[in-house]
């Protein structure tokens, strides 16, 4: 099994941090966005943005693997 690249880990970590560790920033009901309380809007936004971050992680990982293959290392 190959170690993931730092870029892929970074992209995968973005939604995790945005959803789990930013609660104190967005835990409000008063602002309403598109008819939703802000905290609900924040979670739905990250639900939709997570695939974009995972696509970025995938792109970083494929670039990392193809770069390793060009250098001559064979995958196990």
Summarize it.
This protein is mostly helical and 76 residues long.
Description:
The chain is mainly α and 76 residues long. It has one domain (6-69). The chain has helices spanning 6-20, 23-26, 38-70; strands at residues 32-33, 36-37. The chain has a two-stranded antiparallel sheet. Helix 1 (6-20) runs antiparallel to helix 3 (38-70). The longest helix has 33 residues, at 38-70. The protein starts with 5 loop residues before the first helix and ends in a 6-residue tail after the last helix.
What are the main properties of this structure?
two-stranded antiparallel ribbon, 3 helices, 76 residues, single chain, elongated, mainly alpha
Number of strands: 2
In N-to-C order, the SSE pattern is: HHEEH
Structural class: mainly alpha
Note the main sheet: 2 strands, antiparallel
* Total domain count: 1
Taking strands numbered 1, 2, ... along the chain, how are they ordered across the largest sheet? Answer: 1-2
Gross morphology is elongated
Write the layout of secondary structure elements.
Layout: H1 6-20, H2 23-26, E1 32-33, E2 36-37, H3 38-70
Antiparallel strand pairs: 1-2
Helix pairs in contact: 1-3
């Amino acid at each position: 099994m190959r170690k993931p690249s730092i870029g892929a880990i970074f992209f995968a970590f973005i939604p995790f941090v945005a959803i789990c560790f930013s609660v104190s920033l967005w835990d409000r009901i008063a602002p309403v966005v598109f008819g939703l309380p802000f905290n609900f809007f924040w979670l739905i936004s990250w639900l939709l943005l997570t695939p974009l971050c995972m696509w970025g992680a995938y792109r970083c990982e494929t670039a990392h693997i193809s770069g390793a293959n060009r250098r001559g290392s064979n995958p196990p």
